[in-house]
Write a structure and sequence with these properties.
The complex is a heterodimer. Chain A is α/β, with parallel strands linked by helices. Chain A has nine helices and nine strands. The chains are: A alpha/beta, B mainly alpha.
Chain lengths: 248, 256
């Protein structure tokens, strides 16, 4: 039996949102404090999930079904309301490319800041910087320049390179691969393969079924905050597609 | 676990973010750091021009006003920076698992570094205005630490609430000039009529400004009472700030 790296049992995540019935300060005062300005909205409603070591796992689901919330919860960004969650290993979340890039600062400054935020120490930051220099194909002059003078593609290259600089135990990818030009996209796919071969588990969210089928072996489909199906990738993909044709 | 790993790194994280904040604040400005000196100096000039006759009873008025201004500037700009700290870093907080406290705390540290650097030229100016050297000046070290804790508590509370109600930031912009005049910065609290003095006591800043003036202006050892009041307020504010932050931090995510 393969080792389990992520085990989730009966996971619930609620969000605190503005109460739609209380739209203005007037409403709040008029209700004499009886109506709370906030209410709870449940996003994940009892998710069970197991991911094995070295597995490449696809996560599918319609917009708003809770995919990103689940990924953020696994990455430790969102605290679950209830349920059990065991994560064995270091997670590298790749949730959006270029988050945290400070446009006014240089590429080098940004590598240092983001690497520090990701929890690297000084020697790891040095290695990561060298990796970004070669992988991103941005020249030293580019990296010394303020990021606001970069093109969108260059920003994506910088952001992606930083996030894959280290080989984690678990990689979480949220539709991040459609960045850069064709050459860079191929490079990204190669790097993901490399990370996969190193024995790392990958959780992959994408709406592109061909991409999912190419990379993943198993998958799950989220429907309205619950896991509707866990199976081999082809079965899940077929189920996911059927969701859109039911009422057609 | 990941979280433990991150906490070991916390001092390093704070320093990196604080240095980034300082860089960002003065980026693309020709005068850079000098701006943090110009703001209190502009007010000082106005005070000297307008009030030095009115408050002729206050000896060495320039020194008296400068002490108040220097500490007010630290307080005001720290609160301004902390208020936005979590909202401004929403994109990072949504993608990387780090303690959210990092950002308001680093904002304070950045302001503290700027403040300590600004003390170098300000001390020169204070000597020019009649500051006397004495051992008692060393009390400034604990006084600044206590004041920083007070600022942290207030800033963290406002920063947390500002995530849910952006009114807090707007309210602060409206109120801070009023608080400035409600605090004896340009004037001495001895000028306040006896019957209103009780109300003024409720302004925590009054006690901190008094503390700083005891040390820098009177060259005295502050009374035990003054230490107790200022430390008490600082501890309560920090505890309240942390309690409210801890209670609400898990609900930030849908409000960024």
């Amino acid at each position: 039996m393969a080792e389990i790296v992520i085990e989730v049992k009966n996971l619930y995540v609620d969000f605190f949102v503005q109460n739609q019935a209380v739209n203005s300060f007037k409403d709040l005062v008029m209700s004499l404090g009886l109506k709370s300005p906030f209410q709870r909205k449940s996003i994940l409603k009892g998710v069970d999930l197991e991911i094995k070591k070295g597995e490449c796992f696809a996560l599918m689901g319609k917009n708003g079904s809770g995919k990103s919330t689940l990924l953020r919860t696994l990455a430790g960004i969102i605290t679950p309301t209830s349920g059990e969650m065991i994560v064995n290993g270091r997670i590298a979340p790749m949730l959006s490319i270029g988050a945290g890039l400070e446009l006014e600062l240089s590429g080098y400054d940004n590598i240092k800041i983001i690497a520090t935020l990701m929890g690297m120490n000084n020697s790891e930051i040095k290695t990561a910087t060298a990796f970004v220099e070669t992988f991103s194909e941005l020249s030293k002059e580019d990296l010394k320049m303020q990021v606001k003078r970069y093109s969108a593609g260059m920003i994506a290259r910088l952001g992606f390179s930083i996030s894959v600089a280290q080989t984690p135990d678990i990689l979480i990818v949220d539709e991040a691969l459609s960045v850069g030009d064709i050459g860079f996209q191929e490079k990204c796919a190669q790097r993901i393969n490399e990370i996969k071969k190193s024995g790392c588990s990958i959780i992959y969210v994408s709406h592109s079924l061909t991409e999912l089928k190419r990379i993943c072996t198993h998958g799950a489909c989220l429907v309205d905050g619950k896991i509707a199906m866990v199976a081999e990738i082809d079965k899940v993909a077929a189920y996911y597609e059927s969701l859109f044709h039911q009422h057609a | 676990m990941i979280s433990i790993n991150k906490f070991k790194n916390f001092p390093n994280l704070v320093l990196t973010i604080a240095v980034k904040n300082i860089k960002m604040k003065y980026k693309n400005s020709a005068l850079g750091f000098v701006w943090s000196l110009l703001h209190p100096l502009a007010y000082l000039l106005i005070f000297i021009l307008v009030f030095s006759n009115a408050f002729a009873g206050v000896e060495r008025y320039s020194l008296f006003a400068l002490i108040g201004l220097v500490f007010w500037t630290f307080f005001n700009s720290s609160i301004n920076q902390m208020l936005q700290a979590i909202i401004a870093n929403a994109s990072v907080l949504k993608t990387i698992a780090i303690p959210k406290l990092l950002f308001p705390f680093s904002a304070l540290i950045a302001e503290l570094i700027t403040f300590l650097l600004s003390l170098i030229p300000f001390f020169g100016l204070m000597f020019f205005f009649g500051l006397q050297l004495s051992v008692e000046l060393l009390w400034l070290v604990p006084a600044v630490i206590i004041f920083a804790f007070f600022t942290f508590g207030v800033g963290l509370l406002l920063c947390t609430l500002n995530v849910f109600f952006r009114d807090i930031g707007l309210l602060w912009n409206t109120l801070s000039p009023a608080i400035f005049y409600f605090t004896p910065i340009a004037y001495s609290s001895s000028l306040i009529p006896e019957k209103y003095l009780t109300i003024l006591q409720f302004n925590p800043l009054l006690h901190y400004i008094n503390l700083m003036r005891e040390i820098l202006y009177n060259n005295a050892t502050p009374s035990l009472h003054l230490w107790a009041v200022t430390t008490g307020i600082a501890v309560s504010c920090t505890v309240i700030g942390l309690l409210v932050y801890n209670r609400l931090k898990n609900n930030f995510v849908s409000f960024y």
